[in-house]
Predict the structure.
Amino acid sequence: MRTCRFRHRGQDRYGVVEGSEVRPLNAAPWSGGLPEGRAIPLADVTLLAPVEPSKIVCVGRNYRAHARELGNEVPAQPLLFLKPPTSIVGPQEAIRCPEQSSEVHHEAELAVVLARPLSRATAAEARGAVFGYSCLNDVTARDIQREEKQFTRAKGFDTFCPVGPFVETSLDPLDLPVVCRVNGAERQRGSTRDMTVDPFALLAFISQVMTLLPGDVVATGTPEGVGPIRRGDWVEVDIAGIGVLRNPVV
């Protein structure tokens, strides 16, 4: 199943994508939303970010090659940080470069969306709590991150978390290509099989710290090749089976 959020005639709804149409749901799909009303052509709607999480939990340096390219060691345990829900934007929405930073970077990632609460879970239990997967760009003010040695301000600006275009429920997240392009030129290409900690083990680890709620998002780390984006660029995060998340930079 492929789900989305969309705007049609001034109303924001969740929906299930059926070919070239979207069928509205009466609630979020992970909350048991049921079909309601007629299907609408996708061409007639505006796609929004497909999630409205209570939190976005991210993991740093989960690909060895990415850790090396920034001169960092691979952490002994997953390195967690949070992005605020206010950083989320959807497909085609602009990433705004803040005046506080002169070095904004793209980071293409696989995002996991939760279907049910998860607390103090095993990896097997975490697998059963997953609703689906999406594309995510963990936009980062790299100069601020280097200066401050912690990630809140560098990762938390409004518009610094594009997500979408869809959430796909029927994927194997253990061997997916993760690609980033800027203005059509490939910048990042990796595979989720190269993660040091796989998505289900990550969920289990996070759940020992905080309860993950339905609709929450976990970003699983980025492969090597991160680099700058500038005003006027278009950034694409492409994960097979999900789609392409495109955003302009302003």
Observations:
- The longest strand covers residues 11-18.
- The chain has five helices and 19 strands.
